[in-house]
């Protein structure tokens, strides 16, 4: 696990863009993408760059259950507004949070991941150490599944909604084994509220109680953090 400390999100995005350029030059074709505030600057850097993504396929980590795709809070909408409408891709996929049969939708998504594979996976990290929507206690062997969101995750995501009670309580998320299948991973974390999770992820024991700690077992992980997020690292 390689930890890179940066001054701010703009510098972090530039570092990640350089990694992405190298990976594409090496033949990477499938990107696992994340939403939330952590990768926003990275997507802005991609949009401003000269990168051609027309032969690249993206597969997103997760989506809320029950939100229409056109809802401004949906991850479909987020990805369209921050990346897809500016950088056309060969194909892009997100979980179907409106599926009548969510369990079948999860299985279908696993088949998709198996079909395309994941070359470079982008991640953020929750304050409780979740990656994707894999909350503490999630089995490391998990594949795509329906997640009941914890109160802390609902609270953290409420900033994107008018009222906390509007935040969905479930999501469809790639599992931890799905994430770990990626050839390489970049994880972004900014701000002091992520410091405890980053410390546990990098230095703590590998345990389902902090899902991101499993990344210690991956052969190619780059962690991009500002000084606040890195403040508890030895």
TrEMBL record:
Pathway: Amino-sugar metabolism; N-acetylneuraminate degradation; D-fructose 6-phosphate from N-acetylneuraminate: step 5/5. Keywords: Carbohydrate metabolism, Hydrolase. Coiled coil: none annotated. Residues 21-218 form the Glucosamine/galactosamine-6-phosphate isomerase domain. It is an enzyme of class 3 (hydrolase). GO terms for molecular function: glucosamine-6-phosphate deaminase activity; identical protein binding. SUPFAM superfamilies: NagB/RpiA/CoA transferase-like (SSF100950). InterPro entries: Glc/Gal-6P_isomerase, Glucosamine6P_isomerase, Glucosamine6P_isomerase_CS, NagB/RpiA_transferase-like. PROSITE patterns: GLC_GALNAC_ISOMERASE. It comes from the Bacteria. Its EC number is 3.5.99.6. Belongs to the glucosamine/galactosamine-6-phosphate isomerase family. NagB subfamily. This is Glucosamine-6-phosphate deaminase.
């Amino acid at each position: 696990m390689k930890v890179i400390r940066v001054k701010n999100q703009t510098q972090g995005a530039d570092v990640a863009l350089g990694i992405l350029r190298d990976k594409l030059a090496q033949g990477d074709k499938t990107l696992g993408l994340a939403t939330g505030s952590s990768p926003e600057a990275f997507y802005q850097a991609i949009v401003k760059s000269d990168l051609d993504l027309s032969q690249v396929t993206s597969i997103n980590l997760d989506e809320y259950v029950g939100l229409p795709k056109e809802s401004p809070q949906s991850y479909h909408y987020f990805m369209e507004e921050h990346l897809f409408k500016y950088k056309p891709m060969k194909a892009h996929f997100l979980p179907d949070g409106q599926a009548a049969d969510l369990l079948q939708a999860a299985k279908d998504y696993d088949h998709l991941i198996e079909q395309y594979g994941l070359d470079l996976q982008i991640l953020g990290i929750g304050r409780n150490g979740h990656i994707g929507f894999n909350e503490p206690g999630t089995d490391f062997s998990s594949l795509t599944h329906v997640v009941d969101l914890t109160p802390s995750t609902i609270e953290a995501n409420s900033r994107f909604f008018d009222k906390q009670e509007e935040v969905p309580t479930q999501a469809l998320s790639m599992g931890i084994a799905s994430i770990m299948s990626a050839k390489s991973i970049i994880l972004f974390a900014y701000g002091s509220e992520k410091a405890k999770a980053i410390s546990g992820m990098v230095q703590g024991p590998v345990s389902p109680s902090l899902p991101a700690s499993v990344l210690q077992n991956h052969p190619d992980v780059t962690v991009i953090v500002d000084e606040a997020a890195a403040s508890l690292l030895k």
